[in-house]
Prior knowledge:
The chain is of the alpha+beta class. It has helices at 2-22, 36-52, 116-132, 185-195, 207-211; strands at 98-103, 110-115, 137-142, 145-148, 161-162, 169-170, 172-175, 180-182, 223-225, 231-233. The termini are far apart.
Amino acid sequence: MKKKLLNALLLCLTASLLSGCLYPEENRTQNQVPYKDQLLTVQTAVEQFQKAEGGILPIKTRDESTPIYRKYPIDFKKIVPQYTAEIPGNAFENGGIFQYVLIDVEENPTVKLFDLRMAEKIREIKIRIKAQGYPPFKEEISKNVYTLNYKEIGYKEEPYVMSPYTNNNLPLLISGDGNIYVDYRPDLFQKIKEENLKPEQGEDIRNILVKDSEFVPAYSLPITVNKNNEPVFLMK
């Protein structure tokens, strides 16, 4: 009994030490805050690089099918240290929780962020689905978009991610091909109501969230409004 107890204590101690060694930066507050001055510094570096390189942007190559808000991650190796002294502490590449990306690369390349904790939650759900052997679809809420029966994959409560726009809890959905998405409709509903917006039906309105924020709606599906001016998925 004593030997088993000792082994258990050693296992816990080892796990604790490994956790501290492998993720020393994750719990530092400064690595979890989207400081505007850091975005401005990176924005300036991107613009200087683009000017020096004849229009080329300092981005990593991604497949053409990569969703637009994750398609152009910044390659810090191309701008550090020549155009900025160091990688921001809140960037994934420096132990932070944010991925720096560019949007509007053709007209006005602009630096934005997305929270990688979303990616981690999505990865966790996919692992559970894989272990189950199939996705336990629950209810079809739009063409080829479903809720999940989370109890079938071992969750006691429905998982969620925190909105970078409202700090509200956002649900996760699954498409027919097994991809997991964040449902930003509650954020858009709130934004439309607060600002009395009237977008056109058939128009992708996710840019409403991007316009006045440091964040992009990563892992999102295209969203438009219905005849009642309510956010709905824009499924083609």
